[in-house]
Predict the structure.
Amino acid sequence: MTAPMTPQDQPSPSPWQQPWAQDSGDPTSKGGGLVRSEVRGALLVTLALAVSGLLAGFLWVQLAPRVPLVARDGNVLLADSEAEHAVAIDGTFALVGLGFGAVSALAVFLWRRRGGVPLVAALAVGGLLGALVAWQVGEWLGPTDDVIAHAKQVGEGKIFDAPLQLSAKTALLAWPMAAMLVHLVLTGLFGPRDPQPAPVAPGQWQGWGEAPGGAPGTAPGGAPGTAPGGAPGTAPGGAAGQG
């Protein structure tokens, strides 16, 4: 016969089986709101950089060197055949893109220091869109691309400016690359750090070696040397001394 289980012999619930502490708010709704906020911020950054391409294109027109052309005997020729104006024009565009990329990254970092993947993607996409807008606006604001009509207008032997053209399309990547790089550096140096875990007080280690809910060396809810729910020296559910 087995000994009846008394309320004192019944195992107490283990603290390791307790459910996790529930937050007062809904984590799903908080996470969804944070994601929506980051997406809205990324869309605003993309739109702002695309619009700022108008100013970048205007600066490119003002800073880029001119390519002089001259009309002779019905032909349009370079007034200075040895000058490397195309390289200088592409370099000017790249420098303007680098400057706008650095400024846009600084502005975004000051706006939201915590960063995030949506903001980095917005800097890349918005920087590329801004560079494309600057390229088209610069060529539109520059000298006309109808070289023949322009040569007839200025007359024979007169020097006039060639159309503003971007020869190396890789210069379009200067803006987004500079934006991502500067933002990465700023986030690494001045961005918020993850909170460090709180140190454990020495008194919290006094219970080390005790089973949950019992004295040292005892099973949970039982007396020393007993199995859970049984009398001393008995196996769970069996009589004393039985195999």
